[in-house]
Amino acid sequence: MSKRFTLMVAGDPAQRTGGYIYDAHIVSALRDQGWEIDVVGLAGRFPDADTEAAAALAQALESLPDHAAAVIDGLAMGALPEVVAQHAERLDITALLHHPLGDELGLNEAEQQRFHRSELTALAPVARIIVTSHFTARRLPELATQYAMPLNASITVVEPGVAQAPISPELEPGETLRLLCVATLTPRKGQDILVQALAGVAGNHWRCDCYGGARDAAFTQRVQQLIDQNDLQGCVQLHGECDSETLEAAYRHAHALVLPSWYEGYGMVVTEALAHGLPVITTTGGALRDTLPIGAGLGVEPGDSGALHEALNRFCNDAELRDQLRQGAVQARGQLSDWSAAGAAFAAALVTQGSAPSDSPNSSTSLSAGSQFESDWLTLREAADFASRSQRLAKFAAEWLGAHSPAPLIADLGCGRGSNMRFLAPRLKGQQRWELIDHDAILLAQARQRAAGLSDINGHPVAVETHCVSLEPLADVPLGDAHLVTASALLDLVSQQWIDALVSRCAAQQQALLIALSVTGEWHFISPQGEPVLDDEDHWLLAMFIAHQQRDKGLGDALGGQAHEALVAALEKANYRVEQDETPWQLAAGSHDHQPLMMALLAGWAEAATEQAPEAAARIAAWLQHRQQAVANGELGVWVGHRDLFATPLLTAPQEEV
């Protein structure tokens, strides 16, 4: 794909709603990175497209030469599958989805089904799908399974970036506490619920400023009536749509963001608030549960005005709570990515078909320099990794480093987004220096950004260098000066030859190794009581998964679940002392926090099995649907085998002279 495409959106591209603002920022970031982009606003009614809309999309696609690239916003394509299908073979079409059309609030069941089926039909022939949240990435396969419709394209998550902003001043004694709501006035945004929740909030020291265009006149009138009926005219004001300068000033004068939405495909205003260090009071509707970091705000169920009232009342009248949430928001601010990084991730999605990340259930990607892993899987698994990893072996590593250098150097192979460093650095001491090594420049940039503010066990900052190189050949990887060589969730991708080369290099330099979360190839389902559950279909699929693990991933014939034992044997042969711990994931049945990871695992296992045995695709799809339903119902959890090891070189007795 050349660095040129046409972006097609519904209506005026300059509209100031989340989806259009996302599109505009991505276009700007990509143009800064050398891309040529034509933006086309399509006439007609969307998303329930009329004949004018169909003609506009058809004309826009017909005007493009063969093999040209087109990115179509989901609002513009979901109801026009026939138009998309007519050009899918001739053009390189990417769908950009902010959230499924059928999930919009206010649709009856028949309308929901019509939109879902139409959108899935439109997505079936496209080359790739880009979504703006992990929630939507999970939602689309669920819908495809629910309606038994194919979803052939890869799905890549490119979350919104955020512009750098100063931290808004904290509340001064005697100052009016200012709540800010930024959302168009439509039923899905829930401003009526917000006004009901604000009624009766104790004290008269607060006010709420609502900014957003009146897209639904009847709903806007209802919200204003609720303000009047509850005598809130002096403290709740609807300002309407505003320009970017006015909105920025509102963020800078606010003390918290309130977003009462029933459903969001991402919730960009949440990260915009966090960029200003503002805590957020919102709902768990749609992607909002994922978007708001723990400790940076309060979340309640959508539509529950009583729960929202309680949260607002606590926030407005509990100074200690406000301080805690503000600190959490400021901490979360340091983890936000900018629009340049989002643009780079979008570009990577356009030039690749979307590949599975290393050590995912289906790791079929090459590890050559410059290829792209998907950061959504790495993000999704991080909490489970941290909960499973061996604290004992991490302590051994800390003791080894403390005994060998006051300024230890740690080389992290296949670092991804830097999760290994984020787990280990707070458990080590000394003037830590990290060499983060990965083939993926985008992930390396995220890892460096996530290292900002990271400190050791004594609060000292860590120093970070990044190296964008392939892990093959290993001779080109900068390991020479490291005191500790570490990796996490990498080993199943490598070959026996690669392991032998790694051990040879480390032994020559007397380096220690800490290799974490190496998959064993074993997995099974577990009951709500934690008992193993594995039937004949599971055994059959597991066998295909194990076979798929042993394909070449770019580092020779992969050892898959056998890699850990191969590394132990090679280290012991090289006169290393090896300590090991079992570190399985134990993802509990009925756990809301674990469910997204379990769903991703099931989809990955099914994809691997389908690649291994394409003739059995229907049987695999039936297995996937059955097991996903059981997980969704809280009937099953998942156990995945991993092992950690820590190895140190033993002193070799000098040979006698002859």
UniProtKB/TrEMBL annotation:
CDD domains: GT4_PimA-like (cd03801). GO terms for molecular function: glycosyltransferase activity. It comes from the Bacteria. Pfam families: Glycos_transf_1 (PF00534), Methyltransf_25 (PF13649). Residues 410-507 form the Methyltransferase domain. Keywords: Glycosyltransferase, Transferase. Residues 172-329 form the Glycosyl transferase family domain. The keyword Transferase applies. SUPFAM superfamilies: S-adenosyl-L-methionine-dependent methyltransferases, UDP-Glycosyltransferase/glycogen phosphorylase. Its EC number is 2.4.-.-. PANTHER family: GLYCOSYLTRANSFERASE (PTHR12526). This is Glycosyltransferase. It comes from Vreelandella neptunia.
